[in-house]
Design a protein that fits this description.
This protein is of the alpha+beta class. The protein is 25% helix and 35% strand. The chain has 17 helices and 41 strands. The N terminus is likely disordered.
Length: 808
Amino acid sequence: MASFSVLFLLSVATAAAAEKSPHEIYDALNALRPDAAAVYQLKPENQIELRRSDFKLSLEEGRLAFFAPYEGRITGVVFSGRGHVLAAPRDPVEKQQLGRFLGAPMLDQDILSAYIRFTDDTYTELVHQLQSANLLPEINSEFTAPWDAAVASYNPPHSLRVLFSHMASNPPPYFFAAIGGGESGSFQFLYDQDRAEPFLLGQGRKNGTRGFFDVWACYAPAGFTPPAPAFRALRYSIDTTIHADNSLEASSSVRLRSEAGGVRYLAFQLARSLVADAAEDQAGQALAFFQNEGMTEQESAAHGNDIVYVVLPASVANGQEFTVRLRYHGNVIANAGNGVLFVGAHESWYPHLGEAASFADYDLSMRWPRKLHLVATGTKLDEKEEGEQRVAHWRTEKPVSVMGFNLGDYATASLSSDTYAIDIYANRQLEQSVSNRLADAPALMPPGMEPGIPGARGRLEAPGPSLPPPSPAVAMKQLGKEIELSVRFYESFSGPFPFHTLSVSQIPGTTAQAWPGLLYLPTFSYLPAETQHRAGLSVVAQEHFSELAPFHEVAHQWWGNLVGWSSYRDQWIDESIANYLAMLFANTQKNPEHTLRVWLERSRHRLITKPGDAEDRPADVGALVLGSRLDSSRSPEGYEQVIYNKGAWVIHMLREMLRQPGSKTPDAHFESLLHTLVSKYAYRALSTNDLQHEVEAVMAPSMDLEGSHSMDWFFEQWVRGTGIPHYRVEFTTAKSEKGFTVRGKLFQTGVPRSFIARVPLYFNNAGHHIFLGIVTTSGPETVFHFNAETAPHKLLVDPQLTLLCTSD
């Protein structure tokens, strides 16, 4: 497993002063090296095997050495020589990923070395096999000495995991192997039953300057029951001061409840730029801590968040509540130039327990420079000035998944309805990077002088702007009106707006995000089309920032901030619904060039077109349920390309299957589905299985392609599968008593032979699409025949775009 940074906070019971502290144990485990007196020579006839789930490691010839013991226990072994690894996941999604990275749906390679760390029965297994082969240990420092440097670099994160096992009364087994000399290069295998998905196989790689950990396979074996979260955060009380230099000083008290019992450590996320100054328990007792143990500079640059481990003096009984308080300082606020500020660590500027979809209450007190405005999640209870600072207090009325804030020298505007208010915040200046782009751009001529460039028609050859740099504040009122329109539109699909206030704030860069009641929108979303064009944005990019991105984030107020997700495998649901609803909203703006059809065609084109020098089409990168794993060295933008484009199509196909054409409310079933999801899973995690269950509750008879009142076929193909079907039609027409008989074959390629779909066929008559019939595919070739009043000359496959497919 890729090494990660840690901020290791320890609590030592005073009654056990004679006992080694966790820090002392960790240092001792970290200092362990291969024991020169515990070296074994392996010969071909003495092959050693270790099996963990679907992974088999064979040590065939060479030498192995056990680590020196710690308190009588062996926790590691190294091997050099000739060996072999075999891994064959049974899950189709994982087979597809192995095939993508390795060229085959299984790992089957010779190896030359292995570093292994464990808390399970590995030592007992190896000793038993060595004794059965009548092999005795030998003293061989020439073998162990070259391993010392490698072991020193590998040990830190695994020593930490061994420490947690050492402190537990019934620790879940842990096994890690760093494998060298394989055909695919060095790779890693992890089998840790403390994880929801114990099996992990992958490799660290780079794409340009970006570092990735390519996950070849990661899953829970059949029959494995994932451990329940050990703790739940009930309430966060955050007291933060932002100084004149934008540095942050804060204290967070987290009220927790033990959900499992018997666990002694907590894991918090915290931005690496923040340094813990102190920690204490609810009685105010100071706790010792260690920061970033075993983390190299390269690892620090590649890893997004630090993880703060708090080790309790003793395990906490199931159901017991307690409080941990952390004090920290640092700087998560950057200056993008011209006084435009940016809160970089949106989700980790305070210690946050667990996944983003865990809901808790928040109480926030903030102090910041008086000249700035600050917006935050929750209801603002009060605000006042104290000298050169402003002081305000926010509190959430209902549980939320995360607390966010933003600040700047803002101009403001507000809109209100009977149930909610929308507050828009825009910087008075442009960040330096956008100012520079405009300064280097040719000046614009008056609109209409030169046709062909939407929103910015005409350019002079001479460099330099003819107009002063625009202020984002100029367009904020119009942006606010459009956001209010989108809220009203989404309420028909998702129910009442879930918060009393929606604060829309500007950030530099190109990324947009949505926190509960708080939007972060990029500067480009605040600028008119002609300014976006001058800044170098393509027409497609302009449309993204103006017509999709802001309203995608508005939809997240329901989908993501009200309805959460269970794991990385389920986050696609919220992203997909939000993106599709944004497309539907754009479709209402009466722009004939930006209808739903246009957005869907663009998404399909992106899925079937290799971006740049990419090795794969996004359609083939991986299944929706891979979530964040879609980003890899082979597809650095895979998550965005697959989730946003294919995910929106999946929601669209569900909507089309649920539609009732001819009804006064053709979308009634689709709207009912979304309303059910919002009401049933509010402040909860929604899983892919949950979604399938709710779809099956409202499915139409025509959706039951397998005759079992199940949507397995759809979710296996479109959510857990890859590929887009391609169709080709061959047909003949013969005159009959009722008009014409059309007989033919529909050929299906690009997907597995078992792929099934309802494919609508049309033909063109006097400029109109005439419906011929639906062919339910059953393999690569499906025979059909239909009757038609007129003779079709050409058959059209799904011209209404109800199915994600391509055709001749």
